[in-house]
Amino acid sequence: MSDRSRDDRWMDEVGDRTMAFSMPAPSRFKAKLYSRLVEAQAQSTGLAPLSQSSANGFGLCIFEKLVHIAPVGAAVATRNPCRICHARVMAERLEHAPIYWPHCPYVQFQNR
Asked: pLDDT tens, 2-27?
């Protein structure tokens, strides 16, 4: 028996035991984590312009669409509109935030 198969069996056992006790993460935690990850990406490599995100098939929320169609410069177009959006604030503070519009990542994090 190789070490690899013993390691695989051990990982399978750990996974099985973990799944038996797993619970979905709170939506507030997911929202905060997402905000921090996007913030880190914006600081390290920058965010793609909204026009590029839309062209790549990613849906834009209502506020991103507004920034996308507004006559703003490139500096504004590559910023994260979620930083000033009330949906982010509510999702990071409320477990069942009353936000429902399409393509908002914070709506997708809600445990409903």
From this structure: 566 787 888 888 777 766 666 778 89
Cα distance between the two ends of the chain: 46
91, 100 contact by CB (below 8 A)? no
Structure tokens at 83: 């930083």
Flag whether the pTM goes above 0.85: no
Report the distance separating Cα 70 and Cα 41, nearest Å: 24
CB 47 within 8 A of CB 85: no
- List Cα–Cα distances, 20 to 6, 16, 23, 25, 104, in angstroms: 21, 6, 9, 15, 31
Write out pLDDT tens, residues 15-72: 777 666 667 788 999 999 999 999 998 888 888 888 888 899 988 888 888 887 888 7
Classified as helix, coil or strand, 2 is: coil
Give me the amino acid identity at 69: I
How far is the C-alpha of 103 from the C-alpha of 20, rounded, in Å?
32
C-beta of residue 85 within 8 angstroms of C-beta of residue 35: no
Run of H or E residues at 59: none
